[in-house]
Write a structure and sequence with these properties.
- With 107 residues, the chain is mostly helical.
- The chain has one domain (2-102).
- The chain is built from 5 helices and no strands.
- The chain is elongated, with a radius of gyration of 19 Å.
- The two termini are 26 Å apart.
- The chain crosses the membrane at residues 12-37, 66-86.
């Protein structure tokens, strides 16, 4: 009985954490796409804050590079957390092995 409770707890904790990473990955991906499409709104937003350090980040080239980095990071988080969530819910050994091997865990 104690073993069943531990398995149940591990399953749902894994689901919760993968869902949280899924939401965070979606936000990062959405922010990256927004920056890639509309650089001018971020530049206008940053111009409101008068600082010499922020002026370095208002260059369109810097914003474009930051957008692509955010898109890649968000897409990887989105995809991997989706696989982890589906693997945990369905108790799929294949999906969980794929996710744990990709995130750097040892199988």
């Amino acid at each position: 009985m104690g073993s069943d409770c531990g398995v149940w707890l591990a399953k749902y904790l894994l689901c919760i954490f993968n869902f949280l990473f899924f939401v965070i990955g979606t936000i990062v991906l959405g922010t990256g796409i927004w920056l890639a499409v509309d650089k001018a709104s971020l530049i206008a937003l940053l111009k409101m804050v008068e600082s010499d350090q922020i002026n370095q980040f208002t260059q369109p080239r810097v914003i474009e590079q930051m957008a692509y980095v955010l898109i890649v990071i968000g897409a990887v988080m989105f995809f991997m957390s989706f696989l982890g969530y589906c693997g945990a819910i369905r108790e799929s050994r294949c999906l969980l092995t794929t996710v744990s091997g990709t995130w750097g865990g040892q199988v």
